Amino acid sequence: MSKKLWGGRFKKKMHPIVERYTASIMFDKVLVFEDILGSLAHTNMLSHCGIITKKEGELLKKGLEKIASLVSENKIKFFIEDEDIHMNIERLLHKYIGPTAGKLHTARSRNDQVALDLHLYLRKKILSILDLLVLLQNNFLKIAEENEDVILPGYTHLQRAQPLRFSQYCFAYISMFARDIENLKSLWPAVNTSPLGACALSGTILPTNKEYVAKLLGFDAVYASSLDAVSDRDFVISFLAAASLIMMHISRLSEEWILWSTQEFNFISFDDAFCTGSSMMPQKKNPDVAELGRGKTGRVYGSLISLLSIMKSLPLAYNKDLQEDKEPLFDTIKTLEDTLSIYSLLLSSLKINKETMKKALEKGFLNATVFAEYLVKKGLAFRQAHEVVGQMVAVCIHKECALELLTLKEMQSFCKLIKNDVYRVISPLCIEKTSKRTIQFYREKIKKNQQWLTQKSKSIKKIYDHAGLPFIP
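-> structure tokens emitted (473 positions)
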């Protein structure tokens, strides 16, 4: 391998250990198509502004297109000696088109180049993750509608509290994922801002056009400060924070499903295809997918803390520390995509044990609150009603019976306002059905997000198609 492309002022070759330690090609090669896309746009800008000739621009584009084609065919080998994806592509360009390749880096630094690649890559991956979140919401909505008549105990403090429709349970997670979607959409302006043209930190004296190249790449804006453009990783941190919230919601869901799948609860059953067994105990069926979803949440939290720690004391502008932003980001994206994909499948295959849920309503005095509210409607102050029903619960605990099994005479010994209509009101199965308006509300919200996602995906895909590059969300 010949000397480094940046090695003009150096008299010694880099030590092999330093070469391995500082290289990032092992993981940043996933940015290959984004790097080529950025280079094609940069070439167009250089040619458009007369910084290189049209002929030179065409030669550079042909070389970049050849590299993209060979990468797609898995015929390219990247070398650790060239450090990162940017230098590997530039070296390949020299190989295929000769000295003209050296003009590609005109008015560009690896500092704004790597920032650009991150913006392009994260923009694409946000669309992928949004698509998976919408799919998960749709699956929850489908299960909510299919199990509208299923009633189970609702819990506070992990103690049985009030009867709950299974559809209400599903709506809670649809709402959580709706907030996650809004969080990711809110990142779009920051992610869809172009850093290209900032060069190393203070721009260039060459007559470049940052707005022109930003438009080619579908960006909505250009960084106002070149110094900020190359050193900003707030958009990555914000994404990792949003990812942490998504995984927190997944972890809460996992914890409930793990509990609910135990013999003690038996509210749900996982399909065998999503479970593992024990190497020692033949009877075991372990909810490993849910346990891993819960466990991987800590991994994503770690990525967020890692990047916050890297950034907390960095002076402006670019520092090599920023190379450490990619592995946490890439790992988080993969973890999110894998987790959301498998949870949609897991949810679709979930068996709801309706009769077990119904039977669980018989214990725990889940109708105590509605009984107190019944007394309020009869004219009693809530605090007084609360005390009356509490006294009745104490008697039922002693008698080992449910509230609804007390006779009317027994009930009236606590409060004369109680009438025969109480039995219909306090039936654990007598809870309000989910309104069609509620179903429609969630359906419309999901549809609106699908439309936003489709519009953004089409516009980004068009940019890749125009450049002749594969769009792989």
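The chain has three domains: 11-106, 111-356, 367-425.
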